[in-house]
Structure formats: structure tokens, C-alpha cells
Amino acid sequence: MDITEIDKATLINLYSVISRIRKVQLRIEELYHQDNMKTPVHLCLGQEAIAATICENLTKQDYVFSNHRGHGHYLAKGGDLNAMIAELHCKETGCSKGRGGSMHLIDLSVGLMGSSSIVSGGIPLAVGVAFSSACKKDGLISVVFFGDAASEEGVLHESMNFAAVKKLPVLFVCENNFYSVFSHQTTRQLVTDITARPKAFGIPTYKADGRDVIDAYLKSKQAIEVVRGGQGPAFIECKAYRWRGHAGAGDELKDKYRKLDEWDEWMNCCPLQKYETLLLDNNILTDKIIDTVNSQIDVEINKAFDFANESPLPRKDELEKYLYG
Amino acid sequence: MPWTKFLIDKTEPGFDEHADQEDRKLTFSEAMREGLDQSLARDENVYVMGQGVDDPSGMFGITVDLHKQYGSERVFDTPLSENGLTGIAVGSAIAGMRPVYLHNRPDFLMLAMDQIINHAAKWSYMFGGQSTVPLVIMAVIGRGWGSAAQHSQSLHGLFMHIPGLRLVMPSTAYDAKGLLTASIADNNPVIFIMHRWLFKHSSFVPEELYSIPLGKGVVRRKGKDVTIVAISYMVIEAMRAAEELEKDGYDVEIIDSRTLLPLDEEIILDSIKKTGRLIVADTDWVTAGASAEISAMVADKGFEYLKMPIKRVGWPNSHVPGSYVLEEAFYPGVDDIVSSVKEIVK
Q1: CA distance from start to end of chain B
Q2: Domains in chain B, start-ordered, CATH in brackets?
Q3: Residue B323, CA distances (Å) to A8, A203, B104, B195, B328 in order
Q4: Which among A249, A257, A274, B197 would be 20 to 30 A from B8, CA to CA?
């Protein structure tokens, strides 16, 4: 995989998106102890490049379904930052009007269709949207992000089978971060090559290194080209490491369930740092541009938290609003 | 105005106006088929799927040959993946389609509870009303011929518990078509449960597409001694019981709830104001079921009208048996309704 295969504007945009997700996650973590964000956050630190590289290959209209660990998907697809931070603060101005919280982000204006916090729950929804696209022949594709544990759920298999038999334009994106809460993949699965499952349904599969932006971008591109070509679904497994605990800030118990050598290996390979070095070495970015990009992101994040703090809470007399559409 | 609004706003004709309409009687299943046919014709976003919808028997006649009319892209058989297919229907509904997903039995809906309860019912609420799920899920309650514990359940009590769902249980051919139209036009997930034993019943069914508003019960028979709120097939049993009771001088009022979510509380309370007595007849277990909910609602909002304790006629706390002898012991019917009436009307 070669950096020269990607144009400069794309490379710079990817840097900006990944850095922005990183910074938003770190700010949430930094302020979480203040208890102003009264919602269980599932940080995607360490996994940012997967959301960024997949979404970089999508159009604004293409559909994305996310999951409980969805901040990165929302931001990479172009979701409004103010509305996301307000949602984390349980405010009426939140992207889900304070009814969803951190695990239920949505921004229909950019095709971010919603997020389910039932592991694997969004998978058939994405296939259903792809079915709709196939009926309407609108040329759009549908993407669903899920984790390694979702491959243990029957509904993934049901959904892959239907998508394959109907040749639907859907991309299954498995972010394998090895952990389901405290349980390592090897305690849950005998066959740890997750792509063995889609292969059984005749679905073309791809594997990407979620720490390597170039690899993840180019593999995503290949997979998405297949889906867009109308030949049916594709499946990509991207490996990355969950830097934090399952939920909340930090990972206090990490020594009790992770292996030290595994931890060292993955934590010493930061996707953002690795990418930044690569861009500097190839004269794509300079230190000055990096500073400018990052300080703009900081300003934007400050504004988003101000917006959230100043926003009104939902009204108690509107408890039952939105139950029916 | 979009057709979905137009149809809902149309005023329904009263049930009693149909008694003289002899010219156009359809069976329940013919009415359902006609409603599906006309809904498919009206809106290309409507599609029909389910196990066997394109087979020669066409889901008890409901879908027969629709795939020939509308093509296999809009009327199609599905793999046996109830949860996955429900989610796929939900996803397509989010994207603007109006899926109708048919199941042979409510028992099979148990495989799809995650997508029905955790997703379909909550999608509008969780996202502040930005996204809606116009989806109809149908199932047919089985009964008899040894169908036994896993092919005879009604299970609507489970769905009545869930905010965000609609729950529809028609008892006549006229209602079946009108409520089907309203269900397809509704922007929310609708659980539409039919009883197999109603399929041969016929009533007047207008040829044009019409809609009966969800949440409007109907008085099937006027009376002053006792109110029977009957659900689905129990309407038939209640009507038979009322005829029998009339011979002994009992004047029974029968209300067909038609839909349980929303429930027409007003029509029930208005009737009890007059009769002071309530029997709820259901095709489901009485424990924590629709009959319990309706009884509790009346105890809560209409206690002052009640002259006697509320009685419920529904399933005993046992599973549906296979043997016909035990079936006879299990299913409540005319006799149970008659004895309940005689118990509270002195």
C-alpha cells in the first residue's frame, strides 16, 4: 500500500478528521468527571482511523448506521459537533433532542441514520436501507459499523445472507478491537478470523489494519467500489485497539484483564501519530499546517461545549413527545 | 395532501349501516387481499414479504397471486430469519418504504422481539421524532387440529405492553380491509394480528380503498344489562352468547375494541356508564394480558359506574394443548361468556 495512490487533499482531510475525532474524545474524557455529561460514553480512542477512512470513501448522501461506540462514525460522516456535544449533555438542542444520549446519535442531513446500542442491532437496519436503495435505484450505498462481538449475534448472519441473496449495496464494517467489555475475542470465538463468516455467504471480504491510515483507506476504497458496482455486499474487518475501558473515562482495571505485551504493542502504535509522521516525511503536511489544523479544531470544540452548556434541557411536560411519528 | 393523510382523515361509515348491503360480501381473507392489492397499487413504496407469500396458497389467501401482479421485487418470499428480516423491514421503512411483513403465526414473532421492541418501537422516540418506522407486521393466530403450544399463541398482550407500537386485531372483513389500509398509512410500527377462524367469515366490503382510524372501537350490539368488550375472534363468540342470552331476557352490549394500541377507552367507559357491568373476552392469557389492562383501566377511570365485579373470559394459565379433548377444556367460548353474564347480571 502506497501513499502515492492517494491525492494530497484526501490525505490532509483524513488527518483533520482523525485528529478531530481524537481531540473530541480526549475532551469528553477530560471533562467526564464533572458529571455534566450524564450518559454512558463509549470512547473510540485508538479506532479513529477506521471511521475516517471508510467515510472518506462515501458521499454525503450514502447511509451509515452506527453503534454504542459511535462518536467517530458520527463525526467522520460529517455530523454536527454542536448537536453531538449537546446530546451528551442531555440537552434539547442535542442531535436526538436529549432523548437518545451518547449511544443514539443521528444526523440525517449527512446520512448518519442513527445508532443502536443493542450489539448488532443496526446491521439489519443498514441492509434494509440498502434494500430501499435497490428498489429506488438511487445509487446510494449503506454502511454499518459494528464490533467483533456482533459477529457472535445471529442477526449478523441473517442479514449477510439476505444482503447476499438480494445483492444489496451494503458494506459490513467490523471493527475488531478484541474486547467485548472485559472478554477477549479468543475466549468467545474459536475461529478468530471474522471474515470466515461473510465468506460462508459468498460475500467478498477485505482485511485492513486500523492503525494504518493508508492501508485502511485503500482497502475501504476497494470494498466500497465493489458495493457501488452493484455486485452485492462486501465485508471489511479492520483491526484496532480499544485504548480505554468498555465505557466511561480511562481503563482502571486494564491490568486485570489485558495482557501487558499486547497492551504495549498496540499502545505503542498510535494511528494518528504514525500518520502524522508519514505525512511530514512525505512533505504532505508541515508542522505549521498541523498546528493550524489542530488549533482550529480546539476552537471548534470549545464552541461546541459552550453551546451545550448554554442550551436548554428538555421540558418535563414533553416526556411522551416523539413516541409516535 | 399525501394519500396516507387523506385516507386517515376520511370519515368511516358506521358498522350498523352495512346490514342492508347484500351486494358485496367478501370473506376476511378476500378483504385482506383486496386491501393489500389496492395498497400496492396506490403506493410503489409499499411492499409485501414473508415466508410463503408467493406460494400457491398465498398465506391463507391473503397474498395469493399478488407477486404475479406486482412482481417478485415487491411481493417476495423470505429466508427464515425473523429477527434479521424485521430489522431489514425497519431499515427500509426508515428510508421511506412501507413494508408489510407477514408471518404464519404470532409464535414466530418471538424470534423478532429485539427488532420489534428495541428498534422499531423506539426509533422515533430515541431520535427525537426525526425518523419514523411505517411498518406493518402481520400474524395469524392458529387454533385447533392439534396445533398445540407453539402454533396457537396470540401473544398480543406482550405487544400491548410496549410504547411506540400500534396493535390492531380486526374481527370482520370490513374492519380487516379498513384497518389494514390505516395500518399501512400509519407512520409507526403496527402489529396486526388476525385469527385463523375469522378467515371464512364474510361481511360487506366496499370496493374502493377506505380506512378505519386506529383507536376507534365499535359497538357491535346495543344492550343495557352488561358490556362485553371482545377482542378478535371472541367478538364472534360474544355475539353468539348474546343471542343465547337474549332468549333468557339478558340485554347484552358488545364492543369490538378493533385496536388495542391505541385503545378506545371512551367507547368502553360510555358503555359501562349505561350497563354498570363489564366482561372482557380475549384470545390470550388473562394474566397481565389485554383483558387485565382493560379491566384495570375501567377500575381506574370508571369505578363509580360499576355495580358488580369485572369478569374476564380468556385463556387459563396453561399452554395450548395438542389433544382435542384438552383443547375443549382449554378454550373459553360461548358457555363461559353466558355463565359470566349470568353471574353478574341478577
Answers
A1: 54
A2: 3-204 (3.40.50.970), 218-344 (3.40.50.920)
A3: 75, 47, 21, 20, 9
A4: B197
Q: Are B45 and B97 in contact (CB under 8 A)?
A: yes
Cell numbers of B124, please? 422515533
Q: Is B313 helix (H, G, I), strand (E, B) or coil?
A: strand
Q: What is the pLDDT of residues A41-83, one digit of tens each?
A: 999 999 999 999 999 999 999 999 999 999 999 999 999 999 9
Most A CBs within 10 Å, among B125, B165, B190, B191, to test the A interface: B125
Asked whether the beta carbons of residue A155 and residue B131 sit closer than 8 angstroms, the reply is: no
Is B151 part of the annotated catalytic residue set?
A: yes
> Per DSSP, what are the bridge partners of residue B254?
B221, B228
Nearest-CA neighbor of B198 among B262, B240, B142, B160? B142
Q: Give the residue ranges of DSSP H helices in chain B.
A: 3-9, 28-42, 66-70, 82-94, 113, 123-126, 156-160, 173-185, 234-247, 265-275, 290-301, 324-330, 334-344
- Write the burial class of residue B306 (CB in 10 Å: 0-12 exposed, 13-18 middle, 19+ buried): middle
Question: Which chain B residues have any C-beta within 8 angstroms of a chain A C-beta?
Answer: 47, 73, 78-79, 81, 83-97, 114-115, 118-119, 123-134, 163-164, 187-188
- A174-199 as b/e: b if 16+ CB within 10 A: bbbbbbbeeebbeeebeeeebbebbe
Amino acid at B321: P
pLDDT band at B15 (very low <50, low <70, confident <90, very high): very low
How far apart are alpha carbons B160 and B166 in whole angstroms?
A: 8
**Do A128 and B90 lie within an 8 Å CB cutoff?**
yes
d(CA A183, CA B333): 53
Residues B228, B277: Cα–Cα separation, whole Å: 8
Q: How far apart are CA B67 and CA B78, in angstroms?
A: 13
Q: Is the pLDDT of residue B7 over 60?
A: no
d(CA B28, CA B18) in angstroms, rounded, equals 15
* Backbone torsions φ then ψ of A27, nearest 5 degrees: -70, -40
- In the three-class reduction of DSSP (H, G, I as helix; E, B as strand; rest coil), residue A287 is classed as helix
The set of residues, in sequence order, having a beta carbon less than 8 Å from that of B100 and lying 6+ positions away, is B36, B39, B46, B47, B48, B49, B136, B138, B184
B131 to chain A: closest CA residue = A325
B38 grid coordinates = 389496492
Q: What value of ipTM does the predicted structure carry?
A: 0.96
A94-125 pLDDT per residue, tens: 999 999 999 999 999 999 999 999 999 999 99
Inter-chain CB proximity A128 and B91 less than 8 Å = yes
Show the domains of chain A with their CATH numbers: 3-308 (3.40.50.970)
pTM over 0.80: yes
pLDDT digits (tens, 9 = 90+) for B210-231: 999 999 999 999 999 999 999 9
* Amino acid (1-letter code) at residue B234: M
Neighbours of B324 (CB within 10 A): 11
Place of cell 426525526: B130
Contact B191, B159 (CB under 8 A): yes
Widest pairwise Cα distance in chain A: 58
DSSP B318: S
Cβ-based contacts of B187 with chain A (< 8 Å): 324-325
Q: Minimal Cα–Cα distance from A124 to chain B, Å?
A: 5
Task: Please confirm, yes or no, whether B82 is among the known catalytic residues.
Answer: yes
Q: Look at B164 and A114 and tell me if their CB atoms are within 8 Å.
A: no
